[in-house]
Amino acid sequence: MVGIKSYGVYVPFHRLDRTEIAKFWSGYRVPGEKAVANFDEDSVTMGVEACRDCLLGFDINAVRGLCFTSTTSPYAEKQSAALIATTLDLSRTTRTIDVSGSLRSGTSAVRVALDAVNGGGSGDFLVCSSDLRLGLPNGSKEMEFGDGAAAFLIGDSDPIASIDNAYTVNNELYDVYRPVTDQFVRSWEDRFVREIGFMKVVPETVRSAFKEFGMGPEDFTRAVISAPNPSYLGGVAGKLGFDPKSQAIDPLWGLVGNLGAAHPMVLLAAALEQSKPGDRILWVSYGDGCDVYALTVTENILSVQGKRSVERMLNSKSSTSYQKYLRWRDLVSFEPPNRPREEPASAVALHRDRKCGLALFGSKCTECGTVQYPVQRVCMECRSKDKFDYYPFADKKGKIATFSHDSLAVSPDPPTTLAAVDFEEGGRIMMDVTDRDVSKIEVGTPVEMTFRRFRQTGGITVYWWKSRPVR
Amino acid sequence: MQSIKDKVAIVGMGCTKFGENWGMSFDDMVIDAVYEAYEDAGIPPADVQAVWIGSYWSNLPAPSQPLSTTLKLDYKPVTRLENMCATASDAFRNAAYAVASGACDIALAIGAEKLKDSGYSGLPTDDIAMGLVSTAPNTFRSRNFTAPGHFAMMATSYFNKYGLTPEEGRTLLAKIMVKNHHNGTMSPKAHFRREITVEQVLKAPVIAWPLGLLDCCGVSDGAAAAILVRKDMAKNFKPDPVYVKAMQIAVGPSEGYMNPKHDWTGVKETYRAGQAAYAEAGVNDPRKEITMAEVHDCFSITEAIVYEDLQFSPRGRFKDDVEAGTFELTGELPINIDGGLKCFGHPIGATGLRMIYELYNQILGRAGQRQLKNPGLGLAHNLGGTPGGATISVTIVGP
């Protein structure tokens, strides 16, 4: 039975109250919050987090394909999926694919994964969607867009939800679009976008899908319809004969915003987390066309729901300010700190360091068992040379041994919290602490690893890891 | 293993004013420090047989060869070296070892640094330091690095381990800074020469919690130099030469960054270098036998922890000595008599020799207002790197 074997989600720690934006611009007030990626995050780092959550407890060696989908990949030329595969320590023979350009890229990639799995012999396929879209300041898109990521593991055994049917149309339309040279998403006049775009294409496609599937609205426990906002969702749900209050709900828009390509993915994950075995789900995403799936939740759902990923990501949060948001997104020119310009990292050195730097492997001495990071060819404890196995730190938890809050260090989110992190299973790494409430950091605070963006120089983005209080 | 004790004598020293020396270049400062040392030793420049110059950030990448041009050295060997903030101490060590080996009779050690040409506040290029803390060179995969950020972690750990509230801990540290500022008012060559109060230290802007602005030393330019000769030649230059009793450097393998056994309430390198230096000098009870010390007070917490690492105070008890005034000018063991890094600032490559300069002047009775009565053994402690991975030199000199 082909379907979704696991789900993972990532929602950034920070939330921006929409009334903060409205107050800043003396504009109209829109309810709810949006999830805001920290200054050290991008679509790749959020994607990594979602994939790590998805793969928790699964054999990474069974992952034979990874598809990363986003409208905001950091590179126009250079694959994000290969970077993510290395960070996740997937096999070098894992197929990696980036799919971009559409808000439907995540659900379309699921179809690619289904075809690959149905084709046989390909093992599991990981599909990840992540987006960090920008609307121009003081616009409705800025109000609506949130940041986040989700991942699904698609395979042909033990799914938590089988994917029973799939139906797709493509549609050429300038409704929402962004040229590669632009930073901000544009759209045509709202009436056209609504009536000729979403409100026309989605009902038409879903009705055709119903016909093809031999089903109707009454066959589904839930309709997971990814819409840009609640008004669109309510409109389309009514047109299709779903009860907007029970069958077609979107808990995300008010809590985290419209997550772009990740929105249908996170929405389905949220639905799965609330589902019982036997529930049937209609899954719809829109963007340059429409993807429709019919899924049936299986008994296996009970074995993965314990991690409560969506609930945890939605509930662990902290409010940030619009000023910080503007700074984190580099939307305002600040007087630069009186410090030297950053030197570029060496692509050669980054290549040598990919296992230790991206996948966060240190070493474990085979003579005395001491774990250490970075890899020490000469053991710091017993001094034996070249007697070690690689040792993963990314999945380990630790505690803050000591820390400082450094206001001198240059950061878009001062002060920089620096800590010596001691891991429960041994080893220490000196790391920044991100996504933290300064007043709550103490000696002994439990932390976990999170993949982050560091310096960007000469077109090269350096990624590494930080610690964060356990979410 | 032989000891360097009483094999080498210092017969001349020089030191510039430390501070924002806008009107002086690196070369100007080197010339002033070195010519003061020549004059003090009473030797012509041509008598110098070998030169070691320490600098960390200045005139990179090639300060050795231009130095001969600056000083018009007579086709003699010149070597530039660095060892983090203990750079000048290592220049001194190399010169002392050369003289002790008999390979040369008269050697010159220089430490110099020009920080204020950079246009930056703070230390000039993080990227050099980043090589020290990055997990792999040239990747810049690293925590966000500043010196105060790292040293502040010692204060957090110390306060936590010994049950001090941040207020109690910060007040104790403030007293150390007040002491050094008081001493600095009597040092004509110091950068900062004013009294401060505990309240001012506590109310200063936070730089890296729990350290505030006045817990940190300044950023300065400066240069210092020493002329070293064989012990048996020393009295030809001076009736009362100062002798090197011990000269030890310990460079740690950065265990504090990687090993949870290291708890950031001590600097193991200081302890180890201190032990080695005490053994070399034949010191059994440092608190009683050392009569004065210049220690690396780059931050208030650094000096506090040095008291314990060098066994001047028992572990966890520097508090008692700070409250008793043990290390004040009039106390049992005066420390940072000239005002320390706190008042001189810290021109990275020069500081170690500035410390020895103070001990030298004290022994020769030239310390003016801050002159101690009959100083005996003096200790200079110079810290490079950060608490988790340091280069420490401990030098002991005496009459």
TrEMBL record, chain A:
SUPFAM superfamilies, A to Z: Nucleic acid-binding proteins, Thiolase-like
Domain Beta-ketoacyl-[acyl-carrier-protein] synthase III C-terminal positions: 213-296
Gene3D superfamilies: 3.40.47.10
Pfam families: ACP_syn_III_C, OB_ChsH2_C, zf-ChsH2
Species this chain originates from: Desulfomonile tiedjei
Keywords: Transferase
Single GO term (MF): acyltransferase activity
Designated name of the protein: Hydroxymethylglutaryl-CoA synthase family protein
UniProt entry tagged with the keyword Cytoplasm: no
Domain ChsH2 rubredoxin-like zinc ribbon: start-end pairs: 360-386
ChsH2 C-terminal OB-fold domain sequence ranges: 395-452
Keyword Methyltransferase belongs to the record: no
From TrEMBL, chain B:
Domain Thiolase C-terminal residues, every copy: 259-394
Protein name: Acetyl-CoA acetyltransferase
Organism: Desulfomonile tiedjei
Parts of the chain that traverse the membrane: none
Gene3D superfamilies referenced in this protein's UniProt entry, alphabetically: 3.40.47.10
Domain Thiolase N-terminal: start-end pairs: 8-231
GO MF, any single term: acetyl-CoA C-acyltransferase activity
Pfam families with a match to the protein in the record: Thiolase_C_1, Thiolase_N
